[in-house]
Design goal:
It is built from 23 helices and 3 strands. By secondary structure, it is mainly alpha-helical. The longest helix has 17 residues.
Length: 414
């Protein structure tokens, strides 16, 4: 406690503070204007689109930042001198790669070691990822992957290693940048897709995660989605990834891609259903009501899959489909509510009323639909909810709600 009080009494000298954040600098760098800032603060300023130095108002013509070692050493000495007051010494920061260093690695991109070094740099920090992404690395990596894909499929060792490393590096970079049209064209070519799907189906866990991340990233336009959807064994690979549950990231990417493929066309929905997508999807939803993003994606994917006869049959055949769908309603988000209502309505139109009604009433669908109609939803969801309420109300005395959710907010009976 005493140390905390002493720390609060310490005044950081103004010349050691960043002019932007007004906090003690951790990584002081000097711009071409001669002013020193904390690297994170000035990078955030420039990334926001600002073109001038915050202090001098001069145009920053060269955004290269020079580490100010003198100021950094003064800051570290000051920290040591005040260590008794609870001030910790700021470690010497790693200098981010320069444009020239990244360009040198890209010029040697046919080397596995160069790709590994590029990946290691990108993994160090978001700052490095952004710097690598802005250096045309994504296009270069996509090009080298496409150039080696056929040889990799023929199991030539060097090509396999290059493709694995390139795919892994792309997966690291993509969270901070988007795949442009040229990159999508390279990675959705017939040979590239065959290679990515081969890794998705036969690769090690890390390779599978990288493959699904890349496929999800490049599926942002209709043409790319259709190419991916037509890929041989894509459905089997995605469904197996759902069953394996390699990681939350891989599961989310798989579900997102399943949704995108399912809405591309009926034949693709059928492929996914025949591969067994419905059962693992329902089971993932049963265990994931606390993960909003996963629930929203999963409900949207399930809603898309049941838009074919085989998908509805698979959903109705699974004992958890109706209870899980009802359980998610009012627990996650408005978007999940809309999907839940749509799923229940679709299933009610294509099932024997008795089994569906029993499951829905026991899961408290009647009460939740009443709440949803009262608190507000889209016109489409309201109309479907009304139809469902009319159906369920006929049998409400035959099956009791078994959910523990508090329905005291219901103001009226249907």
């Amino acid at each position: 406690m005493r140390g905390e009080m002493k720390e609060l009494e310490i005044t950081v000298p103004s010349y050691l503070r960043c002019p932007i954040s007004l906090e003690l600098m951790k990584d002081p760098v000097t711009l071409c204007t001669g002013i020193t800032y904390d690297r994170e603060s000035i990078e955030t300023w420039l990334d926001a689109g600002n073109k001038t130095c915050p202090i001098t108002k001069q145009v920053v013509e060269n955004q290269e930042m020079i580490p100010n070692h003198t100021v950094r050493r003064v800051i570290q000495d000051w920290c040591v001198a005040n260590s008794a007051s609870g001030i910790e010494r700021i470690p010497t920061p790693r200098v981010p790669p320069t444009s020239a260093q990244i360009a040198e690695l890209l010029s040697d991109i046919e080397s596995r070691e160069a790709i590994q070094r590029l990946r290691a740099l990108a993994k160090e920090s978001d700052r490095n990822r952004k710097r690598v992404a802005s250096s045309n690395a994504v296009r270069v990596l996509a090009s080298v992957f496409a150039a080696h894909s056929v040889k990799a499929l023929n199991r030539l060792q060097h090509a396999v290693e290059i493709c694995d490393e390139a795919l892994g590096t792309l997966a690291v970079i993509f969270p901070v940048t988007d795949a442009d049209e040229k990159v999508r064209e390279l990675l959705t070519s017939a040979d590239s897709l065959r290679c990515i799907i081969h890794i998705l189906v036969h690769g090690n866990p890390e390779g599978k995660q990288n493959a699904v991340a890349i496929l999800e990233e490049i599926s942002s336009d209709n043409r790319s989605r259709e190419r991916i959807a037509r890929g041989e064994r894509i459905a089997e690979g995605l469904v197996e990834l759902l069953r394996e549950s390699i990681s939350p990231a891989a599961t989310k990417a798989s579900i997102s891609l399943i949704f995108k493929i399912a809405v591309t066309g009926r034949s693709f929905r059928v492929k996914l259903v025949e591969a067994g997508a419905v059962a693992p999807l329902v089971e993932i939803l049963a265990d994931s009501t606390s993960d909003r993003g996963l629930c929203e994606r999963g409900m949207a994917a399930l809603n898309a899959l049941i838009n074919c006869a085989d998908g509805r049959l698979a959903a109705l055949s699974h004992a958890l489909t109706v209870p899980v769908t009802v359980r998610i309603m009012l627990r996650v988000s408005d978007w999940a509510n809309e999907s839940a209502v749509s799923i229940l309505w679709t299933l009610s139109q294509n099932s024997s009323y008795q089994s569906f009604v029993a499951e829905a009433l026991q899961a408290c669908a009647l009460q939740k639909l009443l709440v949803l109609v009262q608190i507000g939803c889209s016109q489409s969801a309201r109309e479907k909810s009304t139809e469902l309420l009319k159906l369920l109300n006929k049998y409400r005395k035959e099956w009791e709600c078994a959910d523990t959710m508090d329905f005291s907010q219901i103001r009226r009976s249907f």
